Amino acid sequence: MFCPFCRHSDSRVIDSRTSDDGLSIRRRRQCPECGGRFSTTETASLSVIKRSGVIEPFSREKVVSGVRKACQGRPVTDADLAILAQKVEETIRATGASQIEANEIGLAILPSLRDLDEVAYLRFASVYQGFESLEDFEMAIADLRLQHARSLSDSADSAS
């Protein structure tokens, strides 16, 4: 870490704190050469391996833009999409992997999108999972109904 004041190639960490979201670390540093103090923010890099083999940095904005298409005309706000993208990133980072297949990002999007809006979920899943027939939609809807019935059953059990 170069000192921003004198360009000395070393610095000493004085204090480290985790950011509020837990995804980065803020470090307070001091240069042993000039005594200048400065802060750095460190994050673990997360790369996406696309189907073509190209590797690029993970982007929450790409998650939002991909899901936004499925949410057109639905009662989903930009804030909802930002929260969904954050959940997806947290899910992916929790795996501990520094590189992840693009396909796995889509899989991480599906549960959060299902909780957010079932119609948007069906739209996204139909493209992402390549639905080819009405039966594919019927199976997905049956699965949603089963999930909905389970959540109602769990709610009733916890209320008793």
Automatic annotation (TrEMBL):
Binds 1 zinc ion. Keywords: ATP-binding, DNA-binding, Metal-binding, Nucleotide-binding, Repressor, Transcription, Transcription regulation, Zinc, Zinc-finger. Its cofactor is Zn(2+). A zinc finger (unnamed) spans 3-34. One of its GO terms (molecular function) is DNA binding. Belongs to the NrdR family. Negatively regulates transcription of bacterial ribonucleotide reductase nrd genes and operons by binding to NrdR-boxes. It comes from Alpinimonas psychrophila. This is Transcriptional repressor NrdR. GO terms for biological process: negative regulation of DNA-templated transcription. InterPro entries: ATP-cone_dom (IPR005144), NrdR-like_N (IPR055173), RNR_NrdR-like (IPR003796). Residues 46-136 form the ATP-cone domain. It holds the Pfam family Zn_ribbon_NrdR.
